[in-house]
Amino acid sequence: MHTIQPQRFQFLFDFSFKWRLAMWRIGNSNTNQTAEGGFTLSEVIVAILLVTTFVAVALQGMVVAMLLKSRSLQLAEANRWIQADLEQMRSQLTLTQIPLAPHQSRCHPATIDSGFADLVRDNLASSNITGAVDYQLPPQIATSQTGKTFQIDRKLRIPSSPENSKAKLLGIQYTVTPTSGASLELTILHFYTEVIPDAAFQCQ
């Protein structure tokens, strides 16, 4: 029978303890590296979703801003076209200089076709118009800075309000509509104004 010396027991115990301690440290080291040095799959997915949402919102905001800017430019151009046409109408009426002397009967008209508003309407339309409350002038075509074309419709209207009982006021209604594209039926601007000849102010 062999007898194991106590020193050998001590050596085996020390070796076993040190081996287990080394394995435990290695295991903890790997766990810490995983926790501190990387991201889990769920964290990566959440980050991707957040970035995607942010980019989508930013792009949508840019698109809306561009549309609003384009709309503002179109409205500004449409207003300039209308103002230019009104200036041309005013020049046309100024050149004709409607006097009171031969048209005194229009100060107290019996119908809308015998007042000063009808006289201005006939002058602008270059035609004798009767029996029509609304008269459509030939449409105009205008091109914007972006190359889009728009149709400007002009309607002459004699208001039937009590304020215009003597048919002195002539209303001019503008409508600006694109001639092509997805917004073909979308009117970008409505504008209405009224004119009255100087001779009408001389009526007694």
UniProtKB/TrEMBL annotation:
Keywords: Membrane, Transmembrane, Transmembrane helix. The keyword Transmembrane applies. The chain crosses the membrane at residues 44-68. This is Prepilin-type cleavage/methylation domain-containing protein. It comes from Chamaesiphon polymorphus CCALA 037.
